[in-house]
Amino acid sequence: DNKTTMKQNASIFALNSLLSSRQVYNISQLIQEDVLQQMHLFTTFGELAQKADSSDGELRKPFQSLQFLVRDWFNGDEFPFGADGGKAYLSSVLQEDDPDLAQELK
Fold this sequence. Notes:
Number of helices: 4
Shape: globular
Distance between the termini: 25 Å
Radius of gyration: 15 Å
Order of helices and strands: HEHEHH
């Protein structure tokens, strides 16, 4: 939302990541670059938390399960509703944006 800061969002997401095995990132209409930047920040934070928590030094996934929920979707002709259309859409978003950012998020 427009009222919470990036730091507040990151703190909420991080706390939720520690408590939950599944993350659902709720987005309105499109996955835009700011969402990818937030995911990069959250992923980096998650990796740091995993390193700090790991006694064996092994790097683990920052999230057990991460799912994007794009609500109010209006592009059903190009990318159909459901998991398959969503995967195709996410792949197209990651290919179009900054390749370095896309690779880090993959």
